[in-house]
Structures are given as structure tokens and as C-alpha cells.
């Protein structure tokens, strides 16, 4: 398993669908995953620490988990089957642990809110990562410029290195 962070969100030029870009915390692996618009909005809100007047779906689930004294230990993107990514949320309640099947976008949205680590199975990188360094670099720069455009504090992004971290 490789620990990753949500590097940024970009728009796929062909499909016009949002893409969540994950990047290895240590290393150069980059993994783009096409996601839905609602999930992209939720992830963007978490990345930018935007507070909403009414809870969004992922915020509501975090309240439910907290009320049930259950925490998110980590999330894992475990497989790629028939062009569909598979993920799991690992929950802990007391001494009991649970694995819940989910979509990577929901897993990431919850992990960002919980401060939980995100992991990707090595096999998933082998199956789905951009084939060459040029494509990985293009994804990083697209995420960087999207974050710059969307940010309320562009100076903090301009001070960062797009080859390292972008939200």
C-alpha cells in the first residue's frame, strides 16, 4: 500500500467530468480518478475548509459516526475492476473494526474530514497510474492551476511547489 494525499481536482477535457488527482506522499506516483460533481464539491469544500450552513452528505455521515463513537482509521483504494475503482473505509468503534465498501471519492471526502490517511494498493497504481512522467506532470500542473484559480488565498498556493503539494 502507498500512502497518498488528495493532490487536487481537475476537469477532464474530453468528458467534462471532475477528476480527483491522488499523489503519493513519498514518491512520484500520481493517480487520476474520475468522480461525480457532488463528490468533487464535497472534496473541494474539505480541502478549502469551507463551512456550509447545512451539512452536506459527508458532513452528515461524520456527525453520525461521531454520535456513534466510531472513528475512521484509514481508507484504502484496493482494486480496479472493469474500469471501476474499489475502496474501503476502515472504521473503529471501541475494540471492534469494520471495513465498509465504498467509492474512492466518498472515501476521500470522509478521510479529509476525519484527518484519516488514504492508501492505494500497489496493484492499483500498476493498473491505472499515468503511463509516463509527462502525463503525471501535466496532471500536477492542471491541479495546481485549478487550485490557484479557485483559492481565496492564492499567495499560499503560489508559495507552494506544484511538484509537491496542491489542493
For the termini, the CA-CA separation is 22 Å
The total number of structural domains is: 1
What strand order characterises the main sheet?
3-2-1-7-4-5-6
Helix content: 25-40%
Helix/strand-derived category reads alpha+beta
Number of strands: 7
Give average pLDDT, whole number.
84
Rounded to the nearest angstrom, the radius of gyration is 16 Å
The CATH topology turns out to be: Bifunctional nuclease domain
CATH architecture: Roll
- The coarse silhouette is globular
Strand content: 25-35%
- Give a quick account of the main beta sheet: strands, pairing sense, barrel closure: 7 strands, mixed
Q: Which residue ranges are poorly predicted, with pLDDT under 50 across at least 5 consecutive positions? A: 156-167
CATH class: Alpha Beta
The CATH homologous superfamily is named Bifunctional nuclease domain
Order of helices and strands: EEEHHEEEHEHHH
Short descriptors:
167 residues, alpha+beta, Bifunctional nuclease domain, 7-stranded mixed β-sheet, 6 helices, 38% helix, disordered C terminus
Outline the structure in words.
This protein has 167 residues and is of the alpha+beta class. The protein has one domain (2-158): Roll (Bifunctional nuclease domain). The protein is 38% helix and 32% strand. It is built from six helices and seven strands; from the N terminus they run βββααβββαβααα. The chain has a seven-stranded mixed sheet. The model is unreliable at 156-167 (pLDDT under 50).
